[in-house]
Amino acid sequence: MNASFDQLFVGGKQWLLSWLTGAPDWIVQIVSSLINIFALLTVFLTLFALMSVLERKILGRIQNRYGPNRVGPFGLFQPVADGIKMLIKEDIVPARADKIVHFLAPILIAAAAILALGVIPYGRNMTPFTIDGGILFFFAVGSTTELAVFMAGWGSNNKFSMLGAMRAIAQMVSYELPLIITVLPAVMVVGSLNPDTIVAAQAGYTFGVVPRWFVFTPWGFAAFILFFVSGLVESNRTPFDVPEGESEIVAGHMTEYSGFKYATFFMAEYIGMFAITGLAATLFLGGWHAPLRALESVPSYVWFFVKLSALLFVYIWLRGTLPRTRVDQIMNFAWKFMLPMAFTCVIAAAVWHYADGGWRGWLWSFAVIAVVYFTLSILLDTRRKFAPRTYRFAE
Amino acid sequence: MNSAAFVIIAILTLAGALAAATLQKLMHAALSFAVTFVGIAAFFFLLGAEFVGLALIFIYIGAVAVLIVFTILLTRRDVEKDRGFNWSGVAIAIAVFGALTWSILKTQSLSIVAPHVPALTVKRIGEALMTSYVWPLQCIGLLLTAALIGALILVMEEKR
């Protein structure tokens, strides 16, 4: 019973493919890929619609207001209204813009975001495309986003667009380093670049209670936090949304886009967020594994999406809580703190490996991370330069 | 199926290369150059060399193409100006093509039956890099670190 629920979608696909018995091999292959693509797009575009309304609701709650509540029950049909509005808007292309590049940029950015979704294991036997170097594929595809952002900025022929694109590329290139290096500890300990193998390595429980997710090891915890922050930057979310800082450069590289092209950018941003949080859940939160043995009867894909939603909630929460950082603060943070800490995670994972895990590995890797963390915080402390602040009226 | 894929990828790659060589605007040429890289990466995928294909996308589109594009943007003031026809480039291209054709035609064809080659996995590449090629790897690492430090020194503010 449980197993059949767990394999519901896998079985469904096999049932669909059973209609094709006798057809040539390549037709079956193409149809199988098309089913995967269709399922991915349906699930994540629905999630995008849901996320856009939930984000506004939660932000409203944080700011003590209602948020959208006019369209449908609890405002749940708001994305439908938004979508129709975006579709019937006039598509304005600046007269001096580079028409082809301006047109291609949103397509490329959305394609890169959607491709990255393909290698994440969503459940038991539910990886859409199994590639030996799946993690590498994820980042290779993600790195093409930079070129697309540049195309959007340059093709618009607008100074705000170009400045926004420059900022976006600067922070993406800087944070790609810590993002990729924090993946290394998990890859090193498992010894594989295949997401399925990494998820499989996190099965089981220590003492029968605590799941063996990498986030519960010192190096895994540090790497998870660093990965999460780098992911925030890569998806241009608050507090790191300087590329589209409204108060300074209108909307960054999206300034000259309107109507459905703007919506495509918006969608690509959200899909990129799903991809990066999905990878975070896969690498550090045990992928589709249940958190407790008693809860293993719940289908695996449910657990994956629970973890994904939890991480997405933190994204929204941060957006409602933190103000925007400055460009130089982001850069300093990347090169002076994130990068050394990311390297420390790699060393801590190596220490853990050579101590054969267990409590000794735990202590040693914890010590490595703690020493570097405190050294860095003493070295980077800028508070000493300033005198304690005095308030004239606030106290 | 493989031959059909080969033809499609070949057309894409050649079209990208041709566009890069003939397009009037320098920025368009740089962007079509990126298309060519995608085509070459797709060839590696078709041949089963995933790692090489992914590394190609990673390095050439994520880094080199962005570098080229920024170099054009930051150094050329005549991005919009038409380029004249470059005869020396044609001569070099013909020379390279001739040399390659000559060497391919001169090569004696090997026996058709290839020996059984085990699948080239990422794991095996990693093992080779960490055992037999560890010195070259370390040297490249040192060189790249030196380049990074050099770049930092170049942009560092001069303090008096």
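qc> The mean pLDDT of chain A is 84.
qc> done
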